[in-house]
Amino acid sequence: MPQSLLALSYFFHLIATVVWIGGLVTLTVFIWPETKRILAENLALYSLMTRWRKRFVPLTNFSLVVLVFTGFVQMAGDPNYDGVLQISNEWSRVMLLKHLAIAGMVVCGLVLQYGVTPALERASLLLERGKGDPTEWERLRRREVRLTWLNVVLGVTVLGFTAWATAI
Ligand code: HEM
Asked: What single string gives the DSSP state of each residue in 75-122?
């Protein structure tokens, strides 16, 4: 495989990593703890959080596509790689564990995108109009935070398995 293609693949693989994992960490460690503190006093924040989600979610979906595509290029270019589903050495076992952690991230993302987020945005809209049930909103919000933190833990696990694979 031409070295330039592998370098380009690693470049986009790393950019996609920064966007997805970096975005998850920024939301959970920096943005949400602060918004939670002032949310009760400022209803307009509901729509701001909705706008953040609408900006971040398509980026994470696109990052996943880039990671899968460049990931297969990198696998094909790695001397440890013995072919599709050929778990024949330590590197391919670690790559399998990495893929399992990524599958967990995809499931979390789907539950958030098609389950929790639509309901949370409906509840936010009703609250902004003074009609909603704050406890229902709080319940959905806690679910969103828990699932996103699970995604952060899985993302860090993916990086851990990657470091292990790179060291082999
Ligand atoms: C959440 C998804 C993913 C994240 C955060 C991620 C992250 C990374 C990072 C940071 C590297 C290190 C690059 C370097 O050494 O410069 C890497 C390497 C790699 N990734 Fe991923 N990746 C993800 C998904 C995937 C997928 C889906 C595949 C395969 C289809 C894949 C296959 C690889 C391979 C083969 C390497 C090279 C490992 C080695 O050097 O031995 N990755 N990944």
From this structure: HHT-TT--STT---SHHHHHHHHHHHHHHHHHHHHHHIIIIIHHHHHH
Lowest-pLDDT range, 38-52, 61-75, 87-101, 116-130? 38-52
Task: Quote the CA–CA distance of 34 and 26 in Å, as a whole number.
Answer: 11
First to last CA, the chain: 20
Q: Which of 10, 13, 150, 157 to mutate to test the pocket of ligand 1 (most atoms within 8 A of CB)?
A: 13
In the chain, the DSSP E strands lie at none
Confidence of residue 93 (pLDDT cuts 50, 70, 90): very high
Indicate the pTM of the whole model. Answer: 0.88
Probe ligand 1: pick from 8, 19, 74, max atoms within 8 Å of CB? 74
Q: Where are the domains of the chain?
A: 3-167
Would you say 27 and 56 are in contact if contact means Cβ atoms under 8 Å apart? yes
Ligand 1 centroid from CA 68, angstroms:
9
Nearest residue by C-alpha to atom 11 in ligand 1: 162
Closest atom of ligand 1 relative to the 168 alpha carbon: 41
